[in-house]
Design a protein that fits this description.
459 residues, alpha+beta, UDP-n-acetylglucosamine1-carboxyvinyl-transferase, Chain, 2 domains, four-stranded mixed beta sheet, binds uridine-diphosphate-N-acetylglucosamine
Length: 459
């Protein structure tokens, strides 16, 4: 079964930029939700296809604006892409330019990671800096230093990162690289670059996220020699060429976690598949701390049961296998309704608590000091207009809106469409009263008091 079969046809997620979501809260969810392929795997595996001069068939690709943008970046580099449902075919035999387009790279940080494979393949790459973003500065110094260690000359001028490999054959050299911090993107950039380098590379203090392992598995299936992905030390023995591949990406652990929080916050019972429980250990542990019962119905299927009481807990975000920063905002929404005081410390990014003030608009009681949020549980939330400032912030507002009394109207849905595959439609299928309307219509009466859409222009 492909990921789109039980959902309405996917429009281009890029088309929906000017919409808002309206949620009539307080309705329990039930049924089953199908989890899509992992956003962060899909994006970097698409970049990884640049390493292969043949055909890559990638399965379980989610419908996301970020995936579309990454596709546009690859097309601009000369690659040929075709998509049928959740199958994406990429032919990278003609990588015609080493220069990625500014307008696209600045919209999508993950596209910067393509600097590794482009440089490995062509010996030259010109990549605009991705810039800062709503959640923090997000520099690329670790990517750059690693490529320099592999023999590249790198200069940053006028906002462009120009990299080339001096010498006749233009091939990167294997190197030993220590990352100051286990950056996901730097690990992926350097791992891809090293697959076609001359000799052996070792990345120490590497990121251990499941998406790093997925990328390594993808590259190895094309003939790369990557050992130790998923541990802090990754060894890559360079090969001269990679071959065609048919590969299916892992389920999205953050989407899974978001639906689990949706179940917990609405005291619902439903099942979720396909999932990888091993990728969710910190998330499942925290949900159980909070009082939520989750059972493994099958190795790839979870069922959440309605919680009697939600209890406060403390959260510190960390690199994998610590608690994921991408789940911090959804958990903050949940803890607003838990009994007692919770402390959430965001350790990975420096500016990722902006949803706190929006949750307060819904009646939450959260104080923020630096990178720490102090959440005092309240008995109920009440619907209000709110603004999602980044992807996971927008998700946290949807979750809060599902539990709030009355109507919550959420702006900033373009962020949501970047990283969640038709979240509103999947929630609708679970019984949520949620509709998408054009932003030009600000009439909150679009949902009647019982949550029935009136003159809905739901997409
Ligand atoms: C990836 C994920 C993102 C997730 C994040 C952390 C993708 C497309 N995105 O982002 O969803 O929230 O991992 O799990 O996979 N840093 C540096 N220098 C660098 C690179 C990073 O100082 O060169 C710092 C960052 O500012 C941040 C920390 O390292 O504070 C972690 O960032 P990183 O793991 O690189 O995140 P991304 O790969 O951008």
């Amino acid at each position: 079964m492909n990921s789109s079969s039980s959902l309405p046809d996917a429009k281009s997620p890029l088309e929906a930029d000017s919409s808002v979501l309206q949620i009539f809260g307080g309705h329990p969810l039930r049924g089953h939700v199908r989890i899509s392929g992992a956003k962060n795997s899909a994006l970097v595996i698409m970049a990884g296809s640049l390493l292969c001069s043949g055909d890559c068939r990638i399965r379980n690709v989610p419908f996301l604006a970020d995936v579309e943008r990454m596709g546009q970046v690859l097309s601009a580099l000369g690659l040929r892409l075709t998509r049928q449902d959740d199958i994406l075919d990429i032919n990278a035999s003609e990588l015609t330019t080493s220069k990625a387009p500014y307008e696209l790279v600045t919209q999508l940080r993950a596209s910067f990671f393509a600097i590794g494979p482009i440089l490995a393949r062509l010996g030259i790459a010109q990549m605009p800096l991705p810039g800062g973003c709503a959640i923090g500065a997000r520099p690329v110094d670790l990517h750059v230093r690693g490529l320099q260690a592999m023999g590249a000359e790198v200069q940053i001028e006028h906002g462009i990162c120009n990299a080339y490999v001096p010498g006749g054959h233009g091939r990167l050299k294997g190197a030993r690289i220590y990352l100051d911090t286990p950056s996901v993107g730097a690990t992926e950039t350097l791992m891809m670059a090293a697959t076609l380098a001359d000799g052996e590379s070792i990345i120490e203090n590497a990121a251990r996220e499941p998406e790093v392992v997925d990328l390594a598995n993808f590259c190895n299936a094309m003939g790369a020699k990557i050992y130790g992905a998923g541990t802090s030390t990754i060894t890559i023995v360079g090969v001269s060429k990679l071959h065609s591949i048919d590969y299916s990406i892992i389920p999205d652990r953050i989407e899974t976690g978001t639906f689990l929080v949706a179940g917990a916050i609405t005291r619902s019972e439903f099942s979720l598949s396909p999932v990888c429980p091993d990728h969710l250990i910190p998330v499942l542990a925290k949900l159980r701390d909070i009082g939520v019962t989750i059972i493994e119905e099958a190795p790839d299927c979870l069922r959440i049961l309605p919680a009697d009481v939600l209890r406060a807990t403390d959260i510190d975000t960390l690199p994998h296998p610590g608690f994921p920063t991408d789940m911090q905002a959804p958990f903050m929404a949940l803890l607003t309704l838990a009994e007692g005081d919770s402390i959430i410390n965001e350790s990975v990014f420096e500016n990722r608590l902006r949803h706190a003030s929006e949750l307060n608009r819904l009646g939450a009681d959260i104080r923020v000091k630096g990178n720490t949020a102090f959440v005092r549980g309240v008995p109920k939330l009440s619907g209000a207009p709110v603004l999602g400032t980044d992807l996971r912030a927008a998700a946290s507002l949807v979750l809060a809106g599902l539990a709030a009394e009355g109507i919550t109207t959420i702006q900033g849905i373009n962020h949501l469409d970047r990283g969640y595959d038709r979240l509103d439609m999947k929630l609708q299928q679970l019984g949520a009263k949620i509709i998408r309307i054009k932003e030009t219509s600000t009439d909150v009466e679009l949902l009647a008091n019982n949550g029935t859409p009136l003159n809905s222009t739901a997409l």
